[in-house]
Amino acid sequence: MKAGLALNDVPVMLSGMASSSIGMLELPYARLPVGLDGAGLAVHRVGRFGIISGVCSNDDVMRGEETKIVGCNGMIERSAVEQWLLLPGTHPKHIVVKGGQVTGLKTYMTGEIFDLLSKQSVLAASVCGVGKLEENKDAFARGLQAGISGDLLHELFMVRTNQLLYQQAPEQNHFYLSGVLIGSELAGLVDCAGVHLVTGPAHRALYALACELLHIPVMTIIDADEALIRGNGCC
Question: With a threshold of 0.85, does the pTM exceed it?
Answer without folding.
Answer: yes
